[in-house]
Design brief:
It comes from Acinetobacter populi. The protein has about 475 residues and is α+β, with helices and mostly antiparallel strands. Helices cover about 35% and strands about 20% of the residues. The chain binds flavin-adenine dinucleotide. The site of flavin-adenine dinucleotide has 36 residues, from strand 3, helix 4 and strand 10.
Length: about 475
């Protein structure tokens, strides 16, 4: 009998029938994530209901050296949750309870299968705020957010998932349960082990519970769209806002080709500015429209802001944000998107964009590369639509574009993954951003936590 048959037979001793799916009964959502990189039906999907069951499943797989892949909402975009046909998936969907909201500690204790949106809603109902927010909020799970160290629009103000995890329960590959369920802000009792599992893409342990740090609800936000003569003027506005008002809750930059395309796709939407400019930022900031106007006026005088509009109503604010959101949404639904998610020191992103776009245009004049992103977090996204490219050349095209983008990132000593992780898609380029010694220590950590290499094998780097 194969190891996967043996593992499932032993799991049946403590899991009910409805906690195991095989063959046709496996929902197609377990085949791939949002990267669409590969579609594979895994051997089986198990749905534990308790940490004890997770522990038993892992102990069995470890003993049999059977690979097992944790999956959350499968909204990841790096192929990190995709399992091979001989692998077993462990899905935490049935571990989705909110155990407690502590208004004094301002924490929420949850099981890892809770969706991000449910966590956000529960915090709001308790007059608190969970600030991590990504487009896949309705499906992605807290465990997946932790495993990818998710970012999103509000990182500039509140930080990434890592900044919101105070405590964690995690099951190691051999079934041992680490209880790291801390609620305190300060706790220097030894190594902070939980940090190893944040952003580890399910390769070091399975997160089963977490203590999340909550924030006060934000005050009323003012939304603004500004136009600039060049990239560094946009950065200057950000620093000016931080000095004179506060750090914005979101600060997103778009270049003109992105802006124009977005407007052309937004039905009945005229340009809210009087003309087109080289570069734009849309942002939300706490403070009145009047405060903001005074600050903007100073940069108008120096010519570092060319035009601006401040939303007067919620509907106008929504329309301004649509300019930022339309392009990725439209390409994802009607085209064939190829996305990059890179970072480097904020002052260099403008130069990076110019060099990278130029190299793409020279090698692939038929393609339009669009640059935008969470600039306040030194994070640039690039999106291309490969819809009209011939099927036979797509793989070569993707390889060629990877080579260009990651080579320029390396030149700038940046990161090939700002917030989406490595998974399978960026594995071959990890050494562009991580030096040899650091890579070896990562491999040693993997060996320490998962000596048999059963947990999400070959993700982040190829297992030996
Ligand atoms: C429309 C859209 C917009 C997005 N926008 C952003 C954005 O702005 N910023 C950003 O950072 N990301 C963004 N993402 C990607 C984001 O990283 C993921 O959506 C999310 O964090 C992954 O959660 P998930 O539950 O779907 O995990 P999955 O995709 O299921 O898994 C992702 C990884 O986590 C592992 N994993 C899942 N659960 C566990 C667990 N309990 N324990 C251990 N490992 C686990 C998996 O093995 C895999 O390696 C976006 C995605 C979409 C679809």
């Amino acid at each position: 009998m194969s190891t996967q048959h043996q593992a499932i037979a032993r799991c049946r001793e403590f899991l009910a029938d409805h906690q195991i799916a095989m063959g046709e009964a496996i929902n197609i959502r377990h085949y791939t994530d949002w990267s669409n990189y590969k579609h594979i039906q895994p051997f089986a999907v198990v749905f534990p209901k308790t940490t004890e069951q997770v522990s038993k499943i892992l102990a069995i797989c470890n003993e049999l050296k059977q690979p097992i892949v944790p999956q959350g909402g499968m909204t990841g975009v790096a192929g990190a949750g995709i399992a091979e046909a001989n692998e077993i998936v462990i899905a935490l969907d049935k571990m989705n309870q909110i155990e407690e909201i502590d208004p004094y500690a301002s924490t929420m204790t949850v099981e890892a299968g809770l969706t991000l949106e449910e966590a956000q809603n529960a915090a709001r109902a308790a007059d608190l705020y969970f600030p991590v927010d990504v487009g896949g909020r309705g499906s992605c799970q807290i465990g997946g957010n932790i495993a990818t160290n998710a970012g999103g629009l509000s990182v500039i103000r509140y930080g990434m998932m890592r900044d919101h995890v105070l405590g964690m329960e995690v099951v190691l590959a051999d079934g041992r349960v680490l209880n790291l369920m801390n609620k305190m802000i300060k706790n220097n009792a030894g190594y902070d082990l939980k940090q190893n599992f944040i952003g580890a893409e399910g390769t070091l342990g399975i997160v089963t519970r977490a203590v999340l740090k909550l924030s006060p609800q934000p005050k009323e936000l003012t939304t603004c769209l500004c136009a600039f003569p060049d990239y560094l003027s946009a950065v200057k506005l950000l620093r000016h806002l931080q000095k004179r008002l506060t750090t914005p809750n979101a600060f997103e930059v778009m270049w003109d080709e992105y802006y124009q395309l977005s407007l052309s796709w937004m039905q009945n939407h005229a340009n809210p500015l009087s003309q087109h400019y080289p570069i734009y930022a849309v942002f939300d900031v706490e403070g009145s429209a009047e405060d903001l106007e005074n600050i903007l006026a100073e940069l108008f005088e120096t010519g570092e802001i060319l035009d601006a509009v401040i939303a007067q109503t919620q509907a106008q604010a929504h329309q301004l944000w649509l300019i930022r959101e339309t392009v990725p949404a439209e390409i994802s639904s009607t085209g064939r998107p190829l996305c990059f998610d890179v970072s480097m020191p904020i002052g260099q992103l403008g130069e990076f964009k110019a060099i990278c776009q130029d190299r793409i245009a020279k090698q692939y004049p038929q393609l339009v590369s669009l640059f935008f992103g969470h600039i306040g977090d030194s994070n640039m996204h690039i999106i291309l639509d490969l819809k009209d490219q011939e099927e036979q050349v797509i793989d070569d095209l993707i390889y060629g574009l990877d080579e260009i983008v990651y080579d320029v990132v390396r030149q700038f000593k940046g990161s090939i993954s700002a917030e989406h992780g490595i998974g399978l898609l960026k594995r071959d380029y990890l050494h562009y951003s991580v030096d040899e010694n650091a890579l070896n220590v990562m491999k040693q950590l993997k060996q320490l936590f998962d000596p048999n290499g059963i947990l999400n094998p070959h993700k982040v780097f190829k297992s030996s």
